[in-house]
Specification:
The protein is of the alpha+beta class. It is 18% helix and 27% strand. The protein is globular and about 65 Å long.
């Protein structure tokens, strides 16, 4: 029985060209049956070049396959929990939730309860199921210690339409980030491919273009306020890679304050996590085609540290 949370990422070699995706994965991993692999593919736990495919897809040389083996359903049981939700927008098809810092989006090994999914199951009787058995309603994710806006789908039609917009980069997300250092230029763009850290699989690093597993990643930013030793940035994503903003800003020399993984300047502000907040999201409603923009204020801890810096006369 599979019970651990495992992730794999590899490139299809020349000799595997034309093989079915499910058969290729069975031969490559040597630890799963074909039916198990097919269930993972159907549950959208397998991506080919960042896109879900069918089991019958014929792999091509150079394809980048990402595969996550989640804890089995016997290991994690989704239980509704009475956890408060801050709902910014809601209708019969979807919700926009302001996720608090410190909340995990969906259950996984080490986080079986207290997640956003547990809260959603208690609040809503109907959620989309096509995103995976452990992620009902979840269209996209935020890191545990990143706060802000998330889209939740109540049916599969909405899920697929929002997923299509996400893939086409039509959903616009803006973040606020308090970073170490005084950013000189008013605006800029970081263009640096990202991939797994070969030493720590849960971390991401900047990789050279052409490296196996390297995926294009571009982050745009502009200065909102400057302080002595810090800068408040508005950040937007052209691509949506795991930990993208955190890795890119650290790589550029401006790590996010409070980031326990990618900040190399300590935590002099005593923040409980990275000062990164997804404050705005814009998307086209799947059913009405109306453009919606939702915003959420910064969490108290984020707002308080900005007020403290300003009151100390450190604003430039």
């Amino acid at each position: 029985m599979l019970w651990v949370d495992q992730e794999y990422c590899f490139e299809v070699p020349l000799q595997a060209a034309g093989k079915r995706l499910d058969r290729f994965l069975v031969r490559r991993l040597h630890l799963l049956s074909r039916s198990q692999v097919q269930r993972l593919i159907e549950g959208r736990h397998v991506l080919v070049n960042s896109v879900p495919k069918r089991s019958s897809y014929k792999v091509q040389p150079g394809d980048i396959i990402e595969m996550q083996i989640p804890p089995s359903s016997q290991e994690i049981v989704l239980v509704p929990e009475e956890i408060p939700l801050e709902i910014i927008y809601e209708d019969e098809d979807l919700m926009v939730i302001n996720k608090p810092q410190g909340m995990v989006v969906h259950p996984a090994k080490g986080h079986k309860k207290g997640t956003l999914v547990n809260a959603l199951l208690n609040y809503c009787s109907h959620l989309s199921s096509d995103g995976g058995s452990l992620r009902p309603g979840i269209v996209h994710r935020l890191d545990k210690d990143t706060s802000g806006l998330l889209l939740v789908s109540k049916n599969d039609f909405t899920y697929h339409e929002l997923a299509r917009q996400l893939k086409a980069r039509k959903i616009k997300r803006r973040y606020l980030a308090l970073v170490h250092g005084e950013v000189r230029e008013e605006r800029g763009m970081i263009d640096a491919p990202l991939g797994r850290d070969p030493k720590e699989r849960k971390k991401r690093v900047v990789l050279a273009k052409g490296t196996v597993g390297a995926r294009e990643a571009r982050t745009h930013y502009r200065v909102k306020e400057r302080y002595c030793g810090y800068t408040l940035l508005e950040v937007s994503l052209e691509t949506g890679r795991t930990h993208q903003i955190r890795v890119h800003l650290s790589y550029a020399g401006y790590p996010i304050a409070g980031d326990r993984v990618y900040c190399y300047r300590g935590n002099p502000l005593n923040l409980p996590g990275q000062a990164l907040h997804a404050y705005q999201i814009t998307f086209r409603h799947p059913r009405t085609s109306k453009i919606l923009t939702c915003e959420a204020p910064s969490p108290t801890v984020f707002a308080d540290v900005l007020s403290k810096i300003r009151c100390q006369g450190q604003q430039i």
